[in-house]
Design a protein that fits this description.
The protein is 35% helix and 14% strand. The protein is an alpha/beta fold. The protein has a domain at 64-132: Nucleotidyltransferase, domain 5. The protein has a five-stranded mixed beta sheet.
């Protein structure tokens, strides 16, 4: 609290506005600098979609399901296959465009080594989309 140097000797009742003016001037300068930046917009020419004249797109390829049992049996869409037959079928599928997605279902009690072998075969034959199928936890 400031005291006046006058004869009354009591506290000074006037507010010191100098810090308030300093803060207001700083805010004014900040707003003067940022206001032109806020109004500047970049024009972007967005492409227009024309769904009537689109090219004929190939129908989506159904996924291939590979199931691996605990005994080491491999099933291609519920049809039993050997590892050699699996390799040849995957080599043929890898050449197609677009490639089908490979869904690998491993039995709950199957060894991970067996599932890893099937995934490795698919990747070595050139399949790019290999995924796993599992049940949701309840």
């Amino acid at each position: 609290m400031a005291f006046s140097s006058g004869n009354s000797g009591g506290p000074m009742a006037e507010i010191n506005v100098t810090p308030l003016v300093d803060v207001m001037l700083v805010l004014l300068i900040i707003f003067m600098i940022t206001a032109p930046l806020m109004s500047h917009k970049v024009k972007v020419e967005l492409p227009k979609a024309n769904l009537d004249n689109r090219e004929s797109v190939a129908p989506p390829v159904p996924p291939i399901t590979l199931a691996v049992t605990e005994a080491g049996n491999i099933y291609w869409n519920d049809e039993p296959v050997t590892k050699d037959l699996l390799e040849s079928r995957l080599a043929i599928e890898a050449q197609r465009t677009p490639q089908a997605q490979i869904n690998v279902r491993g039995d709950r009690t199957a060894k991970y080594r067996l599932v890893e072998e099937v995934v490795g075969i698919a990747q070595r034959q050139g399949m790019r989309k290999v995924g796993f199928v599992a049940t949701k936890e309840r």
